[in-house]
Amino acid sequence: MSTTTQPATRRGFNYKKFLANNGALVGLVVLCIALFIATPDFLTGQNLLNIGIQVSTVAVLAFGMTFVIVAGGIDLSVGAVAALSAMVSSWLFVSAGLPGWLALVGGLVAGLLAGVVNGLANAYGKLPSFIATLAMLSVARGLTLVISDGRPIKTPAEVSFLGGNLGPVPMPIVVLLVAALVASFLLNRTVIGRSMYAVGGNAEAARLSGLPVKRILVTVFALAGLFAALAGLLLAGRLDSAQPQAAAGYELDAIAAVVIGGASLSGGLGKISGTFVGALVLVVIRNGLNLLNVTSFWQQVVIGLVIALAVGVDVLRRKTRSS
Amino acid sequence: MSQQPLVTLQNVGKTFGPVTVIKDVTVSVYAGKVQVLLGENGAGKSTLIKMMAGVYQPDAGRIVVDGKTVTLPTTRAAEELGIATIHQELNLVPTMSIAENVMLGRMPTRHGMVDRSALRNRARAALNLIGLDIDVDTLVGELGIARQQLVEIAKALSINARILILDEPTAALTRHETESLFAVMADLRSRGVGMLFISHHLDEIAEVGDTVTVLRDGEFVAEVPASTPEDELVKLMVGRSIEDQYPRNTGAGTQPAGTQPAGILAVEHLSSTGRFSDITFTVRAGEVLGIAGLVGAGRTELIRAIAGADHYDSGTVTVRGQALPKGNIQAAIKAGIGHVPEDRKGQGLVTGASVNDNLGYATLASTARLGLADFAGQRSRAQAVATKLRIRMHTIDQAVGALSGGNQQKAVFGRWIIAASTVLLLDEPTRGVDVGAKVEIYELMNAITAAGGAIVMVSSELPEILGMSDRILVMRDGKLAGELTTAEATQDAVMTLAARDVDEKN
Ligand SMILES: Nc1ncnc2c1ncn2[C@@H]1O[C@H](COP(=O)(O)OP(=O)(O)OP(=O)(O)O)[C@@H](O)[C@H]1O
Ligand SMILES: [Mg+2]
């Protein structure tokens, strides 16, 4: 009896395990094949470049979000911080008359500072990250409107360059790849990155082992702010102007990308490569639905279902791991 | 004796992925009897009882209840057949009150709403059984590990089970609470409840058990009467005999007069409101200082304050003449302090992370170069210490949460071995550790003190305190009640100091 059941269970286990560990990637491949069959417009050079450009903003935001989620928190402010950073940069250039490159750096610093404030409020002010960053969402969006008076401001050439082309390759794609490498290096190789997993897994055990939990949390949110600023500049560069309502709601895309990529919202789990795939899944679905002329209303429904499916896979993964 | 067992696991087997954990084991529980399961850490005891409790499904064999083959797909199904379980790892909701935890899933209701007074009364009754005198509205998260264990026991007792499984219920308890538990067990037994009892305290086996099933590496080794001598049991369990359970030449740390080694750790007038007050002592190089006391005496709080885990109000902590800042764990670690907390799952380990990672947290920053983690070095150090401590695992990349309880404990310990800590603060260092591994931990303590280190050990196991300490402090109600040399120390002497208040009250 056991001889007949064993091979079956073993095959079932491997299949489950493979799916659980690479669910998002498998999903992405299936999606691409389906779109390739469904529409001739999908696999064209131009469309693939489009996807690359669109994914760059979401993915860069989501890389920052990955740090936060791995460390057991959440950052709802990344979309607003992205908009604020781009606006600060344009304002520094247009109104304060700073050189373009300095304005670009100023934008990044603005994002970093917003992140530091989030981190301080969470680690030292003991505000749950959900609340601290919800407040920041409102503050950052408000400041963006105050600075811009509700109108777009044009970006310096240095920022527009981020939205342009480097030879045949769009700059956003270059920035995306560099950001992915940096984020992955930080998370995998550095002390601070490894500590994030410990803090997210069990903050008290991490603290008693001598890890500087509060400083780690501040760093985590600071990184999320910095990556958000970069995403905001990419977005503004593409439009040659900082928009007051830019990146509204993007935080949800970023969270979705991280979760589809296999991170756990309870902390301690997650990878940059997974997040990258997660962001691609979101963007490819949107792109495909556009090509198939599905209205944006229905697109939202589909995206919601995809997120639910991805979390389902997350649950399955944890089950296979614990048994 | 052809009495029908209440429940039998018949030729059961269990594998996790590629690892076979239980192979062809049969064990029965009879009405009014206490069946003991004995085996080393990782032998498979918890895995076995989890099949009886509906947590795991056996991959082979069958479960028979009252002569009928059953499946237990959920813990609920097991409870419906009258099987209640006290698990080794606590399953409590820290943000809920004691009463709510005890009655979780069985909240008494009136008109569809939770009947709070019935809830309190029933929880109160269950807690009285085991002599836990505490406000049932207290949040479980505020309790120490021993009291949490008592809540967990009360929860299982309140189910009115026919079959009660107790997986190391006494590991976190002092003798005092253990005796209350045994009194309850005696009462249950006279009422025909069948019990399955697991413990690494061999002396408890003859005290409460009827028969003992010995497991080794997931396989059945023998079934013997509970009256079997301890060294006989040890031999069955580890496959060899253990010469000396407490391999310390106690008092050796106190060297001949004139060459008295310097104090390494000095604690002076340490006070923390509501926890402990005016504690003063020194620990010398090469010394093991034992701290005994009842649950709630403030031993853990004291240790945590010294380690920098909590703040305190006044007093000083000095290591090798250098005063440590309050509540600063990093400074304490830098000064050579290593702290093994009492609750390994909640405070000691990141259970979802690998054994490798867990062993390395304390040295992550100190071994890094330019902020980059030293992966290769970390791995070889972790591997070496895992081998040294004989941590039983499938691979070093396995999640530490999947190790057996005793092996998890060794992993917490191993972190400080890697950090080369010279002042170890151990809070119940062998809780849930088997006899063989205990001796290994004791040998490690000896090696640390022989190399000039110092150890402070809080333990609720009196034989361990007596067997391993060079000097013993006894705490009572947050104060030092007395100090005993090895020559003076006996179980009675310690208990008299620890419990004087309790006796006066009674
Ligand atoms: N969920 C799991 N996944 C993989 N391996 C597991 C899992 N649970 C237990 N094991 C392995 O099964 C073996 C037996 O573990 P078990 O917890 O039953 O031991 P035990 O006899 O209760 O030990 P202890 O005395 O330390 O509590 C161990 O080697 C452990 O690593
Ligand atoms: Mg166990």
From TrEMBL, chain A:
GO CC annotation: plasma membrane
InterPro entries found in the cross-reference section: ABC_transp_permease (IPR001851)
Alphabetic keyword roster: Cell membrane, Membrane, Transmembrane, Transmembrane helix
Compartment(s) of residence: Cell membrane
Stretches that traverse the bilayer: 18-39, 51-69, 76-94, 100-120, 127-147, 167-187, 216-235, 272-291, 297-316
Major place of residence: membrane
Membrane disposition: Multi-pass membrane protein
PANTHER family from the UniProt entry: ABC TRANSPORTER PERMEASE PROTEIN YPHD-RELATED-RELATED (PTHR32196), RIBOSE IMPORT PERMEASE PROTEIN RBSC (PTHR32196:SF72)
Protein name: ABC transporter permease
Lineage per the UniProt record: Bacteria, Bacillati, Actinomycetota, Actinomycetes, Micrococcales
